[in-house]
Amino acid sequence: MELSYRDITYCKNVGAKRADILRSELGVRTAMDMLRQYPYKYIDRSRFYRIAEIADEDTYVQIVGEVTEWHTIGIGKAQRLSATFNDGSHQCELVWFKGVQYVKLAKGVKYLLFGKPSRFNHTYNFVHPDLTPWNKVTPEMTQGLEPYYNTTEKMKKSGLNSKVMRSIIAELLPDLRMGVPDTMGMDILQQYRLMPLTEALVNVHFPRDTQSMQNARARLKFEELFFIQLQILRQMKRREMNEGFRMPLVGSRFHSLYKSLPFELTNAQKRVIREIHEDLKSGRQMNRLLQGDVGSGKTLVALMCCLLAVDNGYQTCIMAPTEILANQHYETLKKFLEPLNEQLHMNNEEAPYVNVALLTGSTTKKQREPLHAGLRDGQIHILIGTHALLEDEVQWRNLGLVIIDEQHRFGVAQRARLWSKNTMPPHVLVMTATPIPRTLAMTLYGDLQVSIIDELPPGRKPVHTVHYSLQRRAQVYSFIHQQIEQGRQVYVVYPLIKENEKMDLQDLQNGYNELCEAFPEYRISMVHGQMKAADKDIQMQRFASGETQILVATTVIEVGVNVPNATVMVIQNAERFGLSQLHQLRGRVGRGADQSYCLLLTDMELSNETRKRMDIMVATNDGFRIAEADLQLRGPGDLEGTQQSGLPFELHIANLSTDGQLLELARHAAKEILDADPMLTDERNKMYKHRLDVLRIEAHNWADIS
Ligand code: ADP
Ligand code: MG
Fold first, then answer.
1. Number of compact structural domains in the chain
2. Residue 437 lies in a domain
């Protein structure tokens, strides 16, 4: 029977109980599922060591020699067996704590010893080594690379360790060698020089040598990435066929704003607005991601896009992740629009009119009624807000464009809800200040078109970043003092761990008290997530207006806050922040004409990874470089939002932080197929469509289990 249909229960070395566990722990149902459990590492069994050659602890080695002497210590459960192993010139110790009664040793017999040494009392020790009499050693055992498999606690308890996994898979090899149907066509295999599936599965588990192992893994990674790209790009093709509101006009509101700006748009801003306008007039629904480093001027781009839509008779909204941000966008937009609306006050009938409104959790019921009415009858052109925008009561006359700021805070489900409020889906622009490494952009946001603002407004000085240990507080304080004396303002940020908000708040309060003591002559604001929105606003406002010199805060100020006179960002316990978060925080300064500084304060003792993070922050201000480094250090699984933005299928072997090149190739291959056959209806592409169905069902079943 074909391996894809063979129930794992009836495979050798499995049985009903293990089959249950394989299903619940790994999602394995068939023999083929089992073959798709790839090893996470290999150990070279073709190499033999001498005891004198052992250099590393914790690296597996195999040695040929004899057991010269052994004795048991203790009784019952505490019994332990200790033996001396000699390779002819040196000796080492072997120890068993468990299963002592099963260990059979004999003198004058040649053994193959295999295990992981650790150094102890000047000799090497092997705990629970594999010891095989030399006459029982088969050539296969010492040929090439031995695979190791991930197991869970539950699996181990039922004896399903890596070795048993290996034996189950080894039993499937003869049937596998007879050949399994490939999931990719010959043309792709040839074009990208990939191993056929049969050969790849044999060699991923039991490779002849390193080269064939790498080729096998490359093929399987490519396959994984290929189907993810095929799925994403197919969705994109479908969406591209969605009709969209036509907004061809560049009207008076847009022109008036453009003329009234106190500065010239950067070339990058102009290019991005052009790209977006192309989408808006195309008659197809726009789904675009706008990436731009902090301070690159995304808010203005968003406003100009809104005006494009409004000039064409549509309503728009901008959704922000926090109330502070929504408020701030509202204020910023109103300020930009002042010159336009002033003309109106001067009774200029031709004057373009833009009505901006704000809707957040703290908007009162009384305020809401006219607001809802204004949205229904189209009086309100631009609505700015938080999640509150998604409430059912919010009904539009003709919502034509949705702008979502800081995408990573919003789930895709919420995005979908916004769309469904309309018969025709509005255009969607997602803005993010967290630069996304290309590999992630291609997978997580692969169904969006991408625009990048890769240029900061002129005259910005790069923020000068310094890393201090907490011991040098006095120096930090004197620097703060000096900057404030020059008329500048200072942020001091404390980390926030959600699990223990009380303790975090305590840290913040202590920090605040300390600063009050250190700077009795200055006024200090404090904001944190537990405060009422109105109180937060008051505190922020006091800082923004210059009434207070220092703002003590948790990460609520992370995104978007804009106070150009603030030139110092002090980050307490910087080791507790991720790289992209640190970069976001640093982006709060360096917004005015003065030189700005970011002080990273950490403990003395740092892990290697933390040290690297601090070094990168000190070395560069480039958000893309930081995002790449973040991906390398943490791996993609950890990145904020990865979980909820979600890949269509899970990755089992490919790694987004290291397999960028394969990803490019896989995307290229998928794109070629879909360009020629968007619906995958050609006879030769049916296999791909079928495989996507299978993967979707698997992903679905698996989500049900876990
Ligand atoms: P982002 O949201 O991308 O982090 P903002 O939109 O907050 O950046 O812009 C940062 C600051 O730069 C704002 O004060 C904004 O008014 C200003 N700004 C935007 N575009 C330009 C430009 N082309 N030239 C000069 N200043 C600009
Ligand atoms: Mg912004």
1. 5
2. no
Residue 543 lies in a domain: yes
Same domain, 230 and 263: no
CA neighbor of 166 nearest in space, from 185, 146, 138: 146
3-state SS, one letter per residue, for 626-641:
HHHHHHHHHCHHHCCC
Is 606 part of any domain?
A: yes
Q: How confident is the model at residue 173 (pLDDT cuts 50, 70, 90)?
A: very high
**605: number of Cβ within 10 Å:** 8
Both tokens of 347, joined, read 């009774």
> Cα of 269 to ligand 1 centre, how many Å?
10
Say if residues 662 and 221 touch (Cβ distance below 8 Å).
yes
The parent domain of residue 658 ranges over 222-242+649-704
Quick check: is 273 in a domain? yes
Q: Which amino acid is at 574?
A: A
DSSP-derived 3-state class of residue 567: strand
Summarised one tens digit per residue, pLDDT across range 600-649 is 999 888 888 889 999 999 999 988 888 888 877 776 554 443 333 457 78
Identify the CATH number of the domain in which residue 558 sits: 3.40.50.300
Q: Give the Å distance between the CA of 561 and the centre of ligand 2.
A: 8
> Do 230 and 348 lie in a common domain?
no
The predicted model gives 319-326 an average pLDDT of 84
Atom of ligand 1 nearest to the CA of 269: 23
How far apart CA 39 and CA 146 sit, in angstroms, is: 9
- Full-model pTM: 0.71
How close is the Cα of 408 to the center of ligand 2, in Å?
A: 14
Residue 299 CA, closest ligand 1 atom number: 6
- Alpha-carbon distance 458 to 583, whole Å? 20
Interval 576-591: pLDDT, tens: 888 888 988 898 898 8
Q: Which amino acid is at 552?
A: V
Amino acid at residue number 626: I
Q: Do residues 363 and 411 share a domain? A: yes
Residues 513 and 576 in one domain: yes
Does 565 sit in the ligand 1 pocket, CB within 6 Å?
A: no
Separation of alpha carbons 199 and 196, rounded Å = 6
Query: Please, what is the average pLDDT of the chain?
Result: 87
Domain co-membership, 401 together with 257: yes
- The dihedral sign for the CA sequence 567, 571, 577, 578: positive
Distance CA 505, CA 528 (A): 8
